[in-house]
Amino acid sequence: MISRLAQTMTLTEAEKHLGVSRVTLWRIIKEYRIPTFCDVLDKRVKRVRYADISIILGEAERARRGEAA
What we know:
The protein is an alpha+beta fold. The chain has a single domain (5-62), classed as Orthogonal Bundle (Multidrug-efflux Transporter Regulator, Chain: A, Domain 2), CATH 1.10.1660. It contains three helices and three strands. It has helices spanning 11-18, 22-32, 50-65, and strands spanning 8-10, 37-38, 46-49. It has a three-stranded antiparallel sheet. A hairpin with a 7-residue loop joins strand 2 and strand 3. The N and C termini lie far apart (33 Å). The relative contact order is 0.19. The model has no long low-confidence stretch (mean pLDDT 87).
């Protein structure tokens, strides 16, 4: 079974994965209403689900190709 922590990434990892700045990532999180979670080991660290970030990447790729959402 995959642990819950393995299904998430830190905001820093999400920034690198999406290739955006921290400010842009927060805008995306607010616009798409992506839930954030506190890291179980360090409450100062926020995490997001890989699945949510994958959806954003898919939508961005379709937009680049000019396909309708």
